[in-house]
Amino acid sequence: MSSPLTRRGLLGLGGALGAAALLSACSSSNDTLPVATPSSTTGKTVFTQEQYDALVTSGPVAPAEMVSQNAWAQAIKAHGALRRAGTDTSPIFSLRNPSTNRLKGFDAGIADLLAHYILGGSDVAKLTEFSKTTVDTRETMIQNKTVDVTIATYSITPARAEKVAFAGPYFVSGTAVQVKRSNNDIKSYADLNVDGKKVTTETNSTAIAAIQKFIPKAEVTLFTENDACVAAVRQGRVDAYILDQSILLSNAVNYDDLKVVGEPFTTDPYGIGLTKDDPGAKTFVNDFLTKIFTDGTWKKLYDGTVGPYVAGEAPTPPALGGVPGA
Amino acid sequence: MEIIRSNAGVLLDGLTTTILLTVLGYLGALVVGIVVAIFRVSPIAPLRAVGTVYVEFFRNVPLLSLLILVAFGLPDAGLLLPLFWCGVVSLIASGSAFVCESVRSGINTVSLGQSEAARALGMGFGQQLRLVILPQALASMVQPLVNVLIGTLIGSSLCSAIGISEITNVTQQLNIKYAEAVLLFLVSGVAYLVMALGSGALGGVLERRVARSSHQRRQVQA
Amino acid sequence: MSTQPSQRILFDEPGPRGRRTIALATVAVALLIIALVIVVLAQLDAHDQLEPQKWFFFTQPGFATYMAYGIVGTFRATLVAAVFAFPFGLLLALGRLTRQPLVHAVCVGWVEFFRSIPMLLVVYAFLLALPSYGLNLDIYWKLVIPMILVNSATTAEVFRAGILAVEKGQSEAAQSLGMSARMTMALVVLPQALRLVLPNLLTQLVSLLKDSTLGYVVSYPELMERGRILTSYTHYLLQTYTIVAVIYVLLNFGLTRLAGYLQSRGNRKSAGHRGSRTELAATTMA
């Protein structure tokens, strides 16, 4: 093994910069540590904060009467900010920069664009109020109205749709396979459907169903945290980590001894979790999604967040509805 | 109730895992704890030092911190144990520190005159331990040792945090799946209660037994 | 050589031959320990785990501050839980000692229940179950309230033992002076009991501090949770979790030493009052 400090591109940031970032992270009472901004692997570049803010403020704004006629949107306008549940440790979808305390990523962008659609204005930092959520608390936070929306790589499923309403899908991902970079035996999920192969995934993730359906012979170990699953793969406790491709890609960015193999073997449509009590919420958010799909905002957001990590051009935005639960 | 019936297998597996973790952890802790107690009272200074460091480390380290270190830290040094055994090893390490202290303070309750008298009668080390010290020390050791058993049982729940499917973990997963919180938590809560109270009662019986037999022995000796 | 009580119980002072055997064994054991340490270090080195930056990353001010805030979080949970759990435990102990049957039964039930179930189960209840019944607390309280509930029960037992350890003669004397049962408890028994249980309350604090590690489960940023987050940044699992464990040991070691000191002082003060001695509780595993 060569020197880890030079090997780990991430820690390239380390030292003084990391320390400074951490210091400010602590003094601003922010409780998460950064995973450094990933570098590009495809030629497209990740948004800077300025580019990101510019995209949000150039996004569409709903006509005033549209907001005032919708009770859900009106309540957000009255509150002055969109309350969003999400994560702040996902390098591609929603990652906090500790030196500015700002969130950036595809999900963060959808949230900020939605907030801007309702509220307008140019101070992007003040558009949303963020609450951290985990796989275990996503439904509850919507049901008890702790938040207005959950935008958190949140797959639409019929079971979840019994508890919350889903607008979207706004992004289509799929369950994929992550293995150690040095592992050349496993080229797709099919190679794992063998007695004695061990896989891991997160509790309460959609991957559990995918494993039962596509890799029934593998032995499954469940952890509640992405970190624990990553450790299990890297330390050889399991052969592969099965989860949503976008999260696995983030891991591969974060840990250079991991890779994602094969194409996704399921389709995971991400939706925006909303209350079931007010059907107007879903209508309003779907209108918003249609707007950013057609005016090109969605593609620009994709290119500046997910695009740099996925080979090929940006896909066409998904069709609204059309999946069970949406 | 339907949920309990249709998931009886999973719940029972969880319960079995909890019991296995507890029993293996406790038996291991008894063995290791007694060995460390012997270290701590031995006349060999380095052994005493090892014993002291061992006890101070493992009784002061939070079990969860230890579990995570064993499950996710040690593999980086090439020590990759199956998760179940990570749980057992951590329970043994933590429990044995308390067993050691219970045994040591049990021995300390025996008055010095007793062993001096035994030695004056020409008893050897083994005889002395078996006939004089242990019968008296045992009575005051039973309760703390039962407490370690209950501590091991309760501690085994933390194995849930490193992905071992014991009863707490099963409860939590079923709860996510079915959102039948009250019933599920009640069932596993009662399971723990029964096991803990059962161990406690067993301890009570043992304590009376030991007390009676050592009392009788003393009467015979007198 | 030093002779602890437990050694004097088991062994006579060694004679000249005994001393020689002990000296030999000491050398042999010392060599064995050194060999063991070398094996451990070799094993670590074989897996590249000894590189200095892997162990000293946390001396960088940013990391150090980050972990220091973790310790602050640990104290914030531990001390606040203690502030609630200790008086609550005292009330439960008094309730358990009262002759009022209903109060007695409720207190016994409460204590036995929370003494017997794992705190993690209570944490999961607050984290996963209760929110769907409308009780959705801040993450901090999802950690601290289970700590209070579980430790109220164990603390109650500490207080009860303390109250029962106060000599009977004390309350008899007070009552013969015409004090009511309540006055006797408040003015005579409790003050003595509190002094008796002080060391055990510190042990109880150790137990609370250990329980605060469950912040890892609810994502409350105490030391354990911050350690976890740190690993996703540094990727040094072994080192970070070892350092976290050592910090916990040092904190708890300090508290147990303080408890031992208070214990020995208390015992010296009440020397001769054999009945008023309480053994230091050593049952705070998890």
TrEMBL record, chain A:
**Stated family:** Belongs to the bacterial solute-binding protein 3 family.
Annotated GO biological process: amino acid transport
Q: Which SMART domains match?
A: PBPb
- According to its UniProt entry, this protein's organism is Propionibacterium cyclohexanicum
Question: What Pfam families would the database entry show?
Answer: SBP_bac_3
* UniProt cross-references to InterPro entries, sorted A to Z: Bact_solute-bind_prot3, Solute-binding_3/MltF_N, TAT_signal
| Superkingdom of the organism of origin | Bacteria
Signal peptide span: 1-30
Any one GO cellular component localisation term in the record: outer membrane-bounded periplasmic space
Task: Note the PANTHER family from the entry.
Answer: ABC TRANSPORTER GLUTAMINE-BINDING PROTEIN GLNH, AMINO ACID ABC TRANSPORTER PERMEASE
List the protein's name: Glutamate transport system substrate-binding protein
From TrEMBL, chain B:
This protein's record includes keyword Transferase: no
Question: Keyword set for this entry?
Answer: Amino-acid transport, Cell membrane, Membrane, Transmembrane, Transmembrane helix, Transport
Q: Could you tell me which residue ranges the ABC transmembrane type-1 domain spans?
A: 15-195
Q: Where are the membrane-spanning stretches?
A: 19-41, 53-74, 80-100, 145-164, 184-206
Q: Which InterPro entries match?
A: AA_ABC_transptr_permease_3TM, ArtM/GltK/GlnP/TcyL/YhdX-like, MetI-like, MetI-like_sf
Name one molecular function that GO assigns to this entry.
Answer: transmembrane transporter activity
> By its UniProt entry, which Gene3D superfamilies does this protein fall under?
MetI-like (1.10.3720.10)
Q: Which protein, by its recorded name, is this?
A: Glutamate transport system permease protein
From TrEMBL, chain C:
User: Superkingdom of this entry's organism?
Assistant: Bacteria
* Membrane-spanning parts: 21-44, 64-95, 102-127, 139-159, 180-198, 236-255
GO CC terms in record: ATP-binding cassette (ABC) transporter complex
Q: Which InterPro entries match?
A: AA_ABC_transptr_permease_3TM (IPR010065), ArtM/GltK/GlnP/TcyL/YhdX-like (IPR043429), MetI-like (IPR000515), MetI-like_sf (IPR035906)
Q: Is Transmembrane helix included in the keywords of this UniProt record?
A: yes
Tell me the membrane topology, using the record's own terms: Multi-pass membrane protein
Q: Coiled-coil segments, which residues? A: none
One GO MF annotation is:
transmembrane transporter activity
Q: What keywords is this UniProt entry annotated with?
A: Amino-acid transport, Cell membrane, Membrane, Transmembrane, Transmembrane helix, Transport
Q: Name one GO biological process term.
A: amino acid transport
Q: Name one Pfam family in it.
A: BPD_transp_1
Q: Does the keyword Transmembrane apply?
A: yes
Q: Which residues form the ABC transmembrane type-1 domain?
A: 71-259
State the family it belongs to. Answer: Belongs to the binding-protein-dependent transport system permease family.
Q: Which NCBIfam families match?
A: HEQRo_perm_3TM
Record protein name field: Glutamate transport system permease protein
**Species whose genome carries this gene:** Propionibacterium cyclohexanicum
> Which lineage is the organism of this entry classified under, starting from the top rank?
Bacteria, Bacillati, Actinomycetota, Actinomycetes, Propionibacteriales
